[in-house]
Amino acid sequence: MNFGYFDDTNKEYVITTPQTPLPWINYLGCESFFRLISNTGGGYAFYKDAKLMRLTRYRYNNAPLDSNGHYYYIKDGSTVWNPGWQPSQTALDAYECRHGLGYTIYKGIKNELEACVTALVPIGADCELNKISLKNLSDSKKNISLYSYVEFCLWNAVEDMNNFQKNYSTGEVEVVKGDSRSCIYHKTEYRERRNHYAVYAVNAACDGFDTARESFLGTYGSPAAPQSVGNGTSCNSIADGWQPCGSFRLDITLEPHESRDFIFMLGYIENPADDKWEAPQIINKKKANELMEHFLSIKDFDNALLRLKDYWSHLLSGYTLEADDEKLCRMVNIWNQYQCMVTFNMSRSASYFESGIGRGMGFRDSCQDLLGFVHLIPDKARQRILDIASTQFENGSAYHQYQPLTKKGNADIGSGFNDDPLWLIAGAAAYLKETGDYSILDEMTPFDSNPDNQAPLMEHLRRSFHFTSTHLGPHNLPLIGRADWNDCLNLNCFSTVPDESFQTAGASEGPVAESVFIAGMYVKYGRDYAQICRHAGLTKEADDADAQVEQMIQAVLKSGWDGEWFLRAYDAAGKKVGSHECEEGQIFIEPQGFCVMAGIGVKEGLAEKALESVKNRLDTKYGIVLLQPAYTYYHLELGEISSYPEGYKENAGIFCHNNPWVSIAETVLGHGSRAFEIYKKICPAYLQDISDLHRTEAYVYSQMIAGKDACRFGEAKNSWLTGTAAWTFTNVSQYILGIRPEFDGLCIDPCIPETLSGFTVTRHFRGAVYHIHVDNSAKSQKGIKTLLVNGTPVEGNMIPYQKDVTEYHVSAIM
């Protein structure tokens, strides 16, 4: 069942009913100011950090679902309605929502009155703009009242939710009414901090206002039926403690077929550090006035929308695909790259599944996300790598998360996730392959965010690599620590002390559980580290790294192979995890994907067996599940993974994030049709017809789909903020389509289904534009027979980087 459709021309997803299976959202903002907005106007806004700088409130687990946001109420006679249906839920005569790239438009029609809201965050400004367009579709005059409504958060979202003895006394606002605009200043905290406030404004003289939520809604009222709107009045309330809000009332007369437009703005203002005012309660309105002067007009709004569209068109032009498969093209050209940019901004911090108050930016998460956006914004990717590296400790481990506002590690979560260090190498290697900018290796970067303790980024990578080398367990496999990529696999939580035979030099102190998955990472990214060393002139170090990688390969072949697939791990007692010897959890997806991606067992024929086992034991019609059989009871020695019911999340759910690993692994073996089959199973564009089952947005990836053991097999959760976005784009762009950046140039190595007759990719790479046409008339799955670059035959499939060439015309015949 469909709830909308793709408009590829306008790069929009069009939702045709407000009652989607779950709220279907979009993200506004691509710099510092952000707004989450649902198809019915729900959501909230924040500046940089959804925990520390929250402008408006949002209540998760609310009932009705998604019933607080930035709303507009229309009172037309005795009828009260919202253009986006929520929160009044008055039946509309017509409805449409268009989620575009960085903007959302939702429109409702009721009783021959059309109301259309266009919402965006302009480039280069810290504010959200809404244009509401009202049109009288009837032959009679209409007298209506338009009410706006936002509920302010008291900045720190955690404090806002729990410190009521303080909060109920700190709310403070100021209202300024003028002839051409009206403003509400949210000054809460200004007396104390004196460096920021919010402004809520409209480009009209209001006929009434409210800044106290209780006055607007009523003491026992709700956003579904505000008391002020029902009464057709405003209380002109001034918040004094309690819950501050922002509401304007505009009384409007519309002649037959007349249209009127209004601009509303919610802005964040931060005063200069040296700003001094005699009275602490008086705010400096200079920057707020400048912001309003710049945007509170129809012309300025329309220009901001055009500029935003131009920004995204230019940004997404870095990798474009032409092929016969329109679903493949829309994901590659629009939605997958767009989602990658959202994960760049948000990591895992703020979605309709992440509250924005805890996780911040993830070390591992942000490194993986970088794989999907480095080609789009290499300069910002460079800074992101340095930010991530600065949370590393001197021994090579790192804080698992950091706050985006302070860029300091999250001490509450701490460290000990032993895959983290290798992800830094993965991110740095992706940047170097994309840009060839080796100067980043010389950038002085702090340890533990301490400016007095710095080292070049190259030293950070060295310590990342050697952290794994020096933290090996009894089988010479990497120690897992608190967890590896799978945060729920907690193999050292079991209190049994292993016997002396499980003590080695690398593990003589502390727990000894080992990860075959990290071993696969070490091989794959250890090879990248060796190449980085060679490019940096560190030949001996490169040779040493290659030797240690080879030792790890042998350790996996000796102790990480279970006969038909790769083991997942060894627990703290030295028992196998992910083995046919186990009662439950006999095979896991992660090592099958990553070990084969790393090339382990390919020449020995083990890789083929491992992927065949995945197909036979883990594959389903909705994607590959994480493990089988599912855990049916809690296993103390395994930790959180077995706390989930069968088929959900890490306990045999379809964890979309690692499905691309298996698809990439299939391309390593030349299985183009199988790789593409895996790709399509979790790809939103191919799943639109089962949206009623899938439930999450039909245009972006979700983290998890319920597995075959679950009661709700095929239902998705945790949309938008997931490493699935970066890994699927890496998979489809670099391994299936095969246009892959390498240290020495651009590699043309497609691995496609034999049914795909060919394709054309335009790819920006190191200051040049590559026009690449791949001809698959031979119906091959992998292998380039001839490669022409600007009319000249090239041996192999690598186009060497040439500094002075700015345009390449590439013809590849499979």
TrEMBL record:
Coiled coil: none annotated. GO terms for molecular function: transferase activity. SUPFAM superfamilies: Galactose mutarotase-like, Six-hairpin glycosidases. Keywords: Glycosyltransferase, Transferase. The keyword Membrane does not apply. It comes from the Bacteria. Pfam families: GH94_b-supersand (PF06165), Glyco_hydro_94 (PF17167). Gene3D superfamilies: 1.50.10.10, Glycoside hydrolase, family 65, N-terminal domain, Maltose phosphorylase, domain 3, mpn423 like domain. Residues 311-738 form the Glycosyl hydrolase 94 catalytic domain. Residues 11-293 form the Glycosyl hydrolase 94 supersandwich domain. Signal peptide: none annotated. This is Glycosyl transferase.
